[in-house]
Specification:
It is built from four helices and no strands. The protein has 138 residues and is an all-alpha fold.
Length: 138
């Protein structure tokens, strides 16, 4: 299978996932009391990781592979976007999720999680659109 097709499939998976998280999952957190949220969050993060980890790792491998195959503007831009997404995921979102998982969820933390996630939602959407464009027009 062509590398660009695999990339498009991975990007599509992430864009669908991130929009579901943004519009359904994160807003639903406010409807749990602290104890219920802590219990659900532990199950949720493990279950979601089964989907997220292969997709994100796949994107990272594709971005590195493309850079080694041929360095051009699109491959550099794709790799930069993927690295940025990895960075903010581990620097911003993992600590927020740890707080929720440790029973320290406040309305402010939940709102921050939802608001900051718009950054990832927009960037993953642009990543997908860029891959789609490259697939169709190149």
């Amino acid at each position: 299978m062509d590398l660009l097709i695999i990339r498009l499939l991975l990007d599509f998976g992430m864009v669908v996932l991130i929009w579901m998280v943004q519009l359904i999952v994160y807003p639903s957190f406010q409807f749990y009391d602290s104890q219920q949220l802590e219990r659900w969050h532990k199950k949720y993060t493990i279950r979601l990781a089964i989907i997220v980890i292969p997709l994100m790792l796949g994107q990272l491998v594709i971005s590195i592979t493309q850079l080694f195959k041929e360095i051009h503007f699109n491959s550099i831009l794709y790799a930069a976007a993927i690295l940025f997404l990895w960075g903010i995921t581990f620097l911003i979102f993992v600590p927020l999720h740890h707080k929720i998982g440790n029973g320290k969820a406040t309305g402010k933390i939940l709102k921050k999680l939802e608001n900051y996630n718009w950054i990832r939602t927009i960037i993953w959407s642009l990543v997908f659109l860029g891959s789609f464009y490259e697939m169709v027009f190149n």
